[in-house]
Structures are given as C-alpha cells and as structure tokens.
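User: I'm writing a short methods note and want a consistent example. For Purple acid phosphatase, I'll paste the sequence; you return only the structure tokens, no commentary, since I'll be parsing the reply automatically.
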Amino acid sequence: MKKICTTLWLQFFVVTIFAKRIPTTLDGPFEPVTHRFDPLLHKGSDDLPMDHPRLKRNVTSFFPEQIALALSANSSSMWISWITGEAQIGLNVTPHDPETVASEVWYGKESGKYIMKQNGVSVVYSQLYPFEGLWNYSSGIIHHVKIDGLEPETKYYYKCGDSSLAAMSDELEFETFPLPAPNKYPRRIAVVGDLGLTSNTTTTIDHLIMNDPSMILMVGDLTYANQYLTTGGKGASCYSCQFPDAPIRETFQPRWDGWGRFMELLISRVPMMVIEGNHEIEPQAAGLTFQSYLTRYSVPSKESGSTSNLYYSFNAGGIHFIMLGAYVDYNQTSAQYSWLQHDLKKVDRGVTPWLVAAWHSPWYNSYSSHYQEFECMRQEMEEILYIYRVDIVFSGHVHAYERMNRVYNYTLDPCGPVYITVGDGGNIEKVDADHADDPGKCPSPGDNIPEFGGVCHMNFSSGPAKGKFCWDRQPEWSAYRESSFGHGILEMVNSTHALWTWHRNQDIYHENSHGDQIYIVRQPQSCSVDSKVPSHLLQRDSRLSPSIPLALEHCSCTSILSC
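Assistant:
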C-alpha cells in the first residue's frame, strides 16, 4: 500500500510540474508576444509630496539618515553611505563644512557587540543656478565608509555616525555574499529602473521588498529630480511642456533626499548597485553634470580599475557584473571602451561563469519611445560583448517591459545575450504603450535624439524589415513585451541556468502571479568565449576557457528539472 501511495504521489508530482513547466531559452527563439496596456489601469500617477511620511526628514541634528549599502569589487568589502545635517535650498546657500562630523562605522558579528571600527570620508556638493529667481541647493554632509576584511556569507551588525557627538544610527544588519565560485550565487537579485517617487513607485518597491532580494540592480533614472521646477516645487510628466520658458532644466534637489529616505528601509540592509541614466545628468550653468549621482552613491570604480564612477564592474558570487555608462564617451577610442576590453579579458568564466551587463538605454527596443536612440552605442560596443559571450543585458529608459530572444546585430543568434528592458519602475513620465510597429507610431529618423552621443538611426539592411526604419509587426527578436509597471527578480540556479521572473505591479496581492518567467540557459560548450575572439580583442588566456562542473558538462536539457 505504501509503495502504491508513493508511486501515485510521484505521478501527481510529475504531472503537476510539467503542467506548469517554465520555458527555457533553449525552447526559443519564441514567437513574439505582446500584452497591450490594460485600459482599466492608470498610465501614471502623481509625485509624492515632500511632506509624505516616507520622504520627510525624521532625524534631528547630525544623526545619520539616507543610509545605503553598496558592494565593493568582492565579497570581503562593503560600502556604507549616509547623510548628516540638513540640506539648504534658496537664493543664497552656505555649504556645510564636511570636517565637522566624523564618518564612523562600528560593526561586528553579534548584535549589540561592535568590536570593529572603520573611518571614511565626508563630502558636500552644490547645485547652482545663477539665474534671477532660481534657487540654489547645498547638500547635507555625505559620508562614505568602506569596511574591509569581511568574511563571506556572514551576517554583520553595524551602526554608523559620529560617536563623539553621540549621533549614531540604530543597529542595522547586512549579509556578505559568497566568494566567487561557479556554484555560489546571491540568493535573489532584484532588477528595477526608472523609479522616481510616485504612488506607482511605492507599489513597485513594496512589491520588490515582498520578494525579499539580497541585492538590487538599479539601471538608472533614480529620483526624477529634474522633473521639478525649483521655484515651484511642482512635478511634471513633460518638463519642456510644463516649463517652456525655464532658462535651464532645473532639478529640485530635495527629491534626492526624499528618495534616499524612501529607499533607506531597503538599501540600508540590502546593497544597491546603481548606474546612471539621463535624469542623473542634471547640468548646471557652469557645465558640471552628474554631481548628485557621483557624490551620493558609492560604487567600486577604483577597485575594478575604472577611472570614473559612471562605469565599473564587480563580482557577486559566480556572477561578474559590468555596469556601462551610456552618457559618457563609449566610442572604441574612449577610456570606457579601453577599460571594458581590459575588464573582459580578466574575467575567469571558470570562477564567475555568468557575465551580466547593465546600462540605462536599451539597444534593442520595439517601443516608439527611444526607438533606435542609442544605435551609436550598439554599433561601438555590441561586438565585444558578443565575442566575450555576455549572457544577460539589463536596461531601463523605456517605461515598459520587454524581453528579447537571443540576438546579435538584429539577427537571431543562439549565442547572443538575452536583452531585457525593465524601465517600468513607476516614474512620473507614465508607462509607454505605443510600439514602433503599430500603424502610424513609427518615429521619424529625426525623433529620439539622445542626450549624449551621436545619431546613428538606420534602415534595416536584411530580414523582414529590409529597407525600412520600423518593422510592420513585432520584430522577431522581441520575444515578449508588456506595457505595465513592475520589477524583475533574477535567481541563479547553477552555472548554466538562471530563473528570470518579471512581476507586474498589479499582481502584488496575487500569490504566485507574475507577468513573464523563463529559465535563461547558458551553453558554454557551443558558445565558448575563445572560439570567435579575434586576436585584436583577445590575448589567449587559459582563464577564458569555460570550466563547467562535470555533472553539467554534457547537459543539453530543455528543462532544469532534467539536469
């Protein structure tokens, strides 16, 4: 009887599993699927006011606020950043002296016992607009401390602040990542972009927190501070429409402070890795750019050999992440390209099998918004990423969701990366619902001019759209697209399989509900790195030969279950 029951249970388990089988990229390329915007939903929502409980300042004097974690280049270090003092905004502002408050982190492996201490640096920045009637801004004191010598896969408890002023934070905690290895990965990685500070943003972040990530990949456009007019304190979905006579595109810098407070509950415990978007450019009259972004957040640029916080790399267990800058020179003669080439040559796929890249502006995009906007960047950088077998690329910018079939140079290719757009975090500019292949929605070549770089708009030279600027149907390289706000979760199963799940905001209260789900499968035997690397891009290095665990070396399964 027991044997019969066991057999029946196994049969039920197998039937249940295969009835709900999750597809893999080995099943592709997939026929394109479109889920259009649900008219029962709102395309956008208003910005949260600055006196909203999650945005307003809730500390006094020089107590820390806006506490944020960021990974260093490896698991033995962690960056901790925070702000003390009150920012100033008005016609005349006087910057704080950053030397007046110390930058200390006290930490240990037991709650309440902080046996280690590390000091760091403190800075301030100003956003200045020397135009009649416009307000200037000077930040609070921004602190950055890097703590070293951490043990992998270990929980640490910490406080930050200035002990001499008795101004320390409450106890917080974080857990370090595993050392780089082909069988060690972060538990769950959240991917989100184009957040802003709207009611939709709160739903996105609340949903993301429910999914309990161990790391956040933020693919640009954090605060949308430049959707405000400083003298009006008013948000707008279209800045140029709302403020046509503004002498410069101002930014309401207190939104950065509000965003830091809004995110603190999450990113004071879970590291957030950021890359800049166009809304972080924030030009000042003196020609300065990116001051808020560069000053507020720590990234492992120096640790990864970069000379700029606008591009860098890091390891997270068996994943090597490359964070590229779309708004800094990316030409093949640029410092960024030279750094990228050097970084890719150092990657050891036997230690970090997964290679994941991220930048703000997507190369593959079938929506009307930002269509072919960063074609120049694609033409400069796509080849080297393909040659080194980047597995997944995340971008934002387009305020909708789209996942591509594996593609290279607009051609379906089983060794190309899986490109995913997740610019649907909930910002004030509303969701993008028009596709370039919809009747009458194809942009003109004069539209979608990038805020940095050249214009390389082109007609397709082959395939079903040959001779045309836009397809007349969903492109074959676009596997799934949906106009909805949300976020994604990436879970590494092993050195060849990763589960990607995109969660719609409207599914927050529906258990086990999601918009898109697929296993992304690497094929290192048929898509090896050094099989196609030209001599001018690769000096032969044994570390580039993929090292695959024996149990998976000959695995050609279409489901993780059969591996």
